[in-house]
């Protein structure tokens, strides 16, 4: 479909709106450093105001209102709806993460993997232990947790600093894009209408081969780039020596440390498994109990309560300190919830402005693989404005119509995977994660680009290949 035909088909305006809103986001977030919540809210309103008034009114109701007022009301409603659906999970996950850090539970998991693999395979231990720890912890917090261990290992072994840093990155980056309770996947589940428990199971399983591929890329990059250990924000090099000397007696047991991480995942996945494969009459009253415990809010609450208990026990049994920890977690969660909800509102406003229908009309009659299209859109949006979460939410909002109208030749979960892997994409200087990795590791911008950026795109491409293969071999999931 050429441009003139597109205009005649009524898809030119939605695509023009999409381009304008993405350009606005790039300027606001990437150039002018406007807070993402305000940038996304502004882009959502712009998408509505620039949409065709008659089409928007037909899709959203609000008779008797002016177009401008209708857009504001719909944007506020969409933001509030998504905030209500994801707010509890993000808040609990944030508290859980803080408590795992303070109690030493996360440190314990990594140490046990180190004990199994030995220092000669310390990078592998960081990948394996970090993968488990990263499941419930947001990426920036996760990286802040493990980078002191990577720096301490470099002091102990005298080598492979690049490998240690990239091992942490490839362990946490994929789960950030694919596994609930991370905000991007959580919002995608809502927008694409896929089962939350199934997304945890599929996202976690599909993360494993991509992390394994990323580990091989990290080893290759380590051979090409022998980066030095420099002073960096946080612990000094002298203080890092103390990280490796903390006695095991001051840390929780391995089982107690893993329980807050694994319990929510098992409960959520178990409830979805029961729903898919076990009739309700087989379990009788147990069905209601399993569904309650497998509810993502309840499952995360149970894991968070256990993590809070560990933090209370291993930080001096102080209620005031525990209150401070939970307060820190909630402060972080509040910002994440607002950004996530605003991003979801922006994506949905694009969909209601007809962007999804326009994309669908453009690819109609063409041999366009929608998984490749979704992945490419997510990569470009990540490159343009820097945020993986915004990339996921925007792309999901655009592609949601196709997923919900039953036009896919495979399960919508594959769309979830393609978008999540695409959001790994191209991480460069407009991505906050780029600066977190570079600054806390003591790397220059060029060093970060030549290592982390290469690793992120390699895993993103590998994830697309994996998604395409699975969709071709097992389209129904």
TrEMBL record:
Which key words tag this protein in UniProt? Cell membrane, Membrane, Transmembrane, Transmembrane helix, Transport
Which subcellular locations apply to this protein? Cell membrane
Q: Where are the transmembrane segments?
A: 15-32, 86-104, 124-149, 161-180, 200-221, 254-273, 293-312, 333-353, 373-400, 412-429, 449-474
- State the InterPro entries in the record: Glcn_transporter
- Origin species, per record, is Limisphaera ngatamarikiensis
A molecular function annotated in GO for this UniProt entry is: gluconate transmembrane transporter activity
| Similarity section | Belongs to the GntP permease family.
- GO CC entries: plasma membrane
The protein's topology relative to the membrane is: Multi-pass membrane protein
Recorded protein name is GntP family permease
